[in-house]
Structures are given as structure tokens and as C-alpha cells.
Specification:
With 282 residues, the protein is α/β, with parallel strands linked by helices. It folds into two domains: 27 residues, no CATH class; 243 residues, Rossmann fold, CATH 3.40.50. The protein is globular. It is 46% helix and 13% strand. The N terminus is likely disordered. A seven-stranded parallel sheet has the order 3-2-1-4-5-6-7, sandwiched between helices. It is built from ten helices and seven strands. Bound molecules: NADP nicotinamide-adenine-dinucleotide phosphate. The site of NADP nicotinamide-adenine-dinucleotide phosphate has 29 residues, from helix 3.
Length: 282
């Protein structure tokens, strides 16, 4: 019982709660609540970022949508307000340092504090190309947005999280954080870089209680992989290679995102978690 109480003390952030009381009163779910938290989601105006933004708002967070297409971001901000929390759309290119500083300033101006950052913005080199044919500009474009962008936004947000001695940073990686794929060298390199960046930042910022983790999807139905999923042969191959036999829907990422942005995951940092229906297992 003493051992159990220690575990529950950790889960409830030092508050001593009896395990029976927790279960009887359903209090454990309070640890998953994001009520009163302020979040930034990069690339929150469509696809996975939109689903994560709506999910965080449903769990109680105010959400700032940061992407280049301001009109699309404002539309998601409206959806969030309908859920009942506050939202702001800020035109942001994550690879541009000035934009990133502006994003952080505007967020603090409106919400005073940043509790959560989701680094979700990302691009992939298209068409698929042999590494020997990939132009330097395409390499720079993918690395600048996916890897440098993740660093720039994390760095700027962490400055205020360090002052608050608290924060949750969630990066949306890819199964390609762990495994490789031909024809997408810059994308694979950028996601492999995110894997190590998450670990480096988690180590450096652990003393400030800033948690840095990554969720890594396989194929999720968004514009990002639309072409592959619409090609019957490719789609069949993907399903064949997926032990659970299906691709992800954007909403499949919501539960794990809320968990990693909430107090329920307070002992997790530097983790690379695959959400892939078993794709990477064989
Ligand atoms: N869907 C999948 O199967 C899958 C699998 C593994 C990993 N992922 C990862 O999940 C993340 C989201 O992908 P998705 O499927 O939702 O793709 P998506 O529908 O194409 O959305 C990409 C998002 O990134 C934003 N973005 C792109 N460049 C940006 C920049 N320079 N600055 C700010 N925002 C930028 C876009 O907004 P703007 O164009 O308005 O800027 C958009 O909101 C990406 O990091 C991707 O690598 C996706």
C-alpha cells in the first residue's frame, strides 16, 4: 500500500490521494484535463495539426494556431471558440526566426503564459526522388521547415517555459524517426534529426520540468499522404505492411496528444512513441 501511494503521489503531482478515493471519485481523469492551459500548435490549420488543436481545446486548452495560411488558421480558431475555449491565429513560417519570435510575443501578449507547444508543421519532398537527383533547394526546404523549424519554435517557447519552470513540448515525428524509406532522403533525415533533437532538449530542459516527447505516426489520412492512399496498388501495399490492417485517421492522434500535453504524463520525457498500428514491428 505504501508503494502504491508513492505511485499515486507522482501521478497526482505530490498531492497525497488514496488510491481507493481516486477510483471511487474518478479523480484520475483530472490529470488529463488541460483546463486553463495555453497551447501553440504549429501547422494547426489542417490535417493532423487541426485534429490535435481541436483535441487540446476539447480537453480545456486555449489554442494558438501557427501556420502560413492565415485564413485556414482563422477557420480552425473559429472551430475552437465554438468548443468553448479561446483561440488565436498567427501567420507563421516556422523556418523564419522573426515570425517565430512574433508568434511567441503575440501568444504571451494574449494568454500571458505558454504551457504547451506542439511542433507539428511539416513538409515532404515531392515527387519521390532518387537521392542522386534531389536538388539542394529541396534538401534545404525540407530540413529548414521540419528540423530547423522545430528547433526555432522550441527554443523561443522554452525561454518562457524556463522562466515558469514548467512546460510540455510535443513533436510530431514519423515512423521515419525510427526506420528508413527510399526516395525521401531529406524527409527521412529531418525526422531522424527530430528524434535526437527531442532527446537533447529533454535532457537539457529536464531541470526546468519541461517535458519533450514525440509522437510518430505511420500513414494517416491527410493531404500529406493523399496521393499514396489514392493509388490502389500503393494503398494495398500499405495495408499489407500494417499488422492492424488500417491507416490512421487524424483523430487517432488526439488521445495520445492530450496525454503527453497533460499532467498525466509528468514522468515522461525524451520519448519517441510510435502510433503506427504495428507498421514498424516486423
Ligand atoms: N499524414 C501522415 O501520414 C503523416 C505521417 C507521419 C508524419 N506526419 C507528420 O505530421 C505532421 C502534419 O502532417 P499532416 O499530415 O497534417 O500534413 P498536412 O495536412 O500537409 O499539414 C501540414 C501542416 O504544416 C503546415 N506548414 C507547412 N510548412 C509550414 C511552415 N513553413 N510554417 C508553418 N507551418 C507550416 C501547413 O500549414 P501552411 O501550409 O498554412 O503553413 C499545414 O498546417 C508533419 O510534420 C508530418 O511530417 C504525417
Amino acid at each position: 500500500m505504501v508503494k502504491d501511494q508513492n505511485i499515486w503521489q507522482i501521478l497526482t503531482f505530490g498531492r497525497t490521494l488514496d488510491i481507493n478515493e481516486l477510483i471511487a471519485n474518478r479523480k484520475i481523469l483530472e490529470a488529463f484535463s488541460l483546463k486553463g492551459k495555453n497551447a501553440i500548435v504549429t501547422g494547426g490549420n489542417k490535417g493532423l495539426g487541426r485534429a490535435i488543436s481541436l483535441g487540446l481545446a476539447s480537453a480545456g486548452a486555449n489554442v494558438v494556431i501557427a501556420a502560413r495560411d492565415l485564413e485556414a488558421s482563422e477557420n480552425v480558431a473559429k472551430e475552437i471558440k465554438k468548443i468553448g475555449t479561446d483561440s488565436l491565429a498567427v501567420k507563421t513560417d516556422v523556418s523564419n526566426q522573426k515570425d517565430v519570435k512574433d508568434l511567441v510575443n503575440k501568444t504571451i501578449e494574449k494568454f500571458n503564459r505558454i504551457d504547451i507547444l506542439v511542433n507539428n508543421a511539416g513538409v515532404i519532398n515531392r515527387p519521390r526522388q532518387a537521392a542522386t537527383e534531389i536538388p539542394e533547394e529541396i534538401w534545404d526546404w525540407v530540413i529548414d521547415i521540419n528540423l530547423k523549424g522545430t528547433f526555432l519554435v522550441s527554443r523561443e517557447v522554452a525561454k518562457s517555459m524556463i522562466e515558469n519552470k514548467k512546460g510540455k513540448i510535443l513533436c510530431i515525428g514519423s515512423i521515419l524517426c525510427e526506420i528508413a524509406q527510399a526516395w525521401h532522403a531529406p524527409y527521412v533525415a529531418s525526422k531522424g534529426g527530430i528524434r535526437q533533437l527531442v532527446k537533447a532538449l529533454a535532457l537539457e530542459w529536464a531541470p526546468y520540468k519541461i517535458h519533450v516527447n514525440a509522437l510518430c505516426p505511420h500513414y494517416f489520412r491527410t493531404d500529406f499522404v493523399k496521393k499514396s492512399l489514392e493509388d490502389p496498388e500503393r494503398y494495398e501495399q500499405i495495408l499489407k505492411n500494417t499488422p492492424m490492417g488500417r491507416v490512421g485517421e487524424p483523430e487517432d492522434l488526439i488521445g495520445s496528444s492530450i496525454f503527453l500535453c497533460s499532467e498525466a504524463s509528468n514522468l515522461m520525457t525524451g520519448q519517441i512513441i510510435l502510433i503506427d498500428a504495428g507498421y514498424s514491428l516486423p
